[in-house]
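RECORD TYPE: inverse folding
INPUT: structure tokens
STRUCTURE:
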């Protein structure tokens, strides 16, 4: 009987190990933290550049002011507020950016990063680098999801306690 329980336990452990998935992607720079599915929706490869200087303070395509310290980027087609992980293929450094502008309009380039995004991927020296873009799928978080349930339980227990039987 003991051997069967060991076999059953081993089988269960192997089964659960097989169910293991890739970890979620967590963007710790935002408040509240954003969580994304482990598999990207879309992947692109190409050349990235960055923009700063005369663009600082100007309006972006979605109506925001461009600030060099924002972790944002310009893409020709992705919807505004799409989150994209940009990985510098030369050094493996990556950053998660929010699309808030259109461009780049130079042939062969697929994304323009803000100054701080370019710094985080270590591309300032070269100006342009080969990158991998991963369009991330956000996972909605329920905040205080049990609030209504716990409140209704409290109110129902108060009603029971106060009602005479």
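DESIGNED SEQUENCE:
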């Amino acid at each position: 009987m003991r051997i069967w329980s060991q076999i059953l336990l081993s089988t269960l452990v192997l089964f659960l190990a097989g169910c293991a998935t890739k970890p979620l992607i967590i963007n710790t720079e935002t408040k509240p933290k954003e969580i994304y599915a482990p598999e990207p929706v879309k992947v692109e490869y190409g050349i990235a550049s960055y923009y700063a200087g005369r663009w600082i303070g100007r309006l972006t395509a979605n109506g925001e002011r461009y600030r060099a310290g924002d972790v944002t980027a310009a893409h020709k087609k992705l919807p505004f507020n799409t989150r994209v992980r940009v990985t510098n293929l030369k050094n493996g450094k990556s950053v998660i950016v929010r699309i808030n502008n259109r461009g780049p309009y130079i042939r062969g380039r697929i994304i323009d990063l803000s100054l701080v995004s370019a710094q985080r991927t270590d591309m300032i020296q070269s100006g342009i680098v080969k990158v991998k873009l991963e369009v991330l799928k956000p996972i909605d978080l329920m905040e205080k999801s049990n609030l209504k349930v716990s409140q209704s339980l409290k109110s129902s227990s108060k009603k029971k306690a106060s009602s005479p039987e």
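NOTES: The two ends are 53 Å apart (CA to CA).
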